[in-house]
User: Fold these one by one.
Assistant:
Number 1:
Amino acid sequence: MTRCGNFGVLGFTNGIITKFNMQSGKERGIFSLDAKNPLGASIHTSEVTGLGIDTMNRYLVSSSKDRSVKLWDFYRCKLIKTYSTDFPINSLCYNPVNDLVAFCTNDLSMTILNP
């Protein structure tokens, strides 16, 4: 959920991430690689394991078992950057104070990322 409380974001086991309005419950976007067919291109190829939104609602960070961390434009729902890892990612934590992202992988290591 965003800090202002207006939006919520859900990640699913099929790799899709959706944004919705908390007051109305209506969908407000699907994070996708393909603008013409948002459901045709899966965001992640495996289960989404973590989501984080910056304080100003500009960026969304997502992680997945597909060994990737992705940085998204929150309003446009478009991919900005992808970071690859050697192992599947179990969890992700975003720190709003310094905009750092920490994630844990299957090899029991923790990585800190400054997107």
Number 2:
Amino acid sequence: MDERGTTLLEMLVVVALIACAIGVAAPAIRAYSVEAHLLGAGRAFKAEFLKTRSMATRRGVYTAIRFERSGDDAYFSVYMDGNGNGVRSTDIAAGRDVRVVGPIPLTARAPGVRVGFNPGIPAVPPDSGFLTGDPIQFGSADILSFSPLGTATPGTFYLAGEGAQAAVRVNPGTARVRLILSRGGRWVER
């Protein structure tokens, strides 16, 4: 007989090899997925920051993102200056600076991503030490303000995923908005 085919033993060996390959690749695929969700959320927040800066320069009025909390819920809103002195918490409370967008829930809009820090992540250079404290760092009022000239309040907004950390940073003076990711303890711009 000259019939050709595969034996059951050969098929079991192939299935075992495929299972081993999947087992080895699964952690890498999961890490890639977490990073992709983290970068997607970071890009969404970066886009909101850039949109607000554009609104300020286009309309010629101070415009700001205010990060707000109500109990356990957190959200952000965009406000425009109503009296020529910049967006301020007291003017928002008095109704002089008006909300033009929001409130929008401050969820990262991505599975497994939250506003916060992972333990043991080094601070973004030129800072030293490790990330601690408030993950929203735009002054004591948590307001990211853009001027009609395009300058901004400097600060950083942190996002965390399982084993991954990202930051959306606004540079002083230039108001350049950067998305950076921590990889192996090093911050890399994305």
Number 3:
Amino acid sequence: MGLSQDGITCLVFAARYAHSRNTTAAYVVVDEILRKWDHIPGPDRIQLCKEAKNEATYNFDQWSRLYEKLERE
């Protein structure tokens, strides 16, 4: 199952929306990103992780799942 550029863009936008929300949005977005991880190109993975580290103001334990995954690769 491939992921279109539009799909990747939607994940990036969803992450950006959820970075500053103290809600379950981060959990939902991170789970979806991780489900699609193998279909997200490397540069987009790096972007998602970089923005999670630099922009998230809540739910750090959720966002850290992304950059921990990237570090294990």
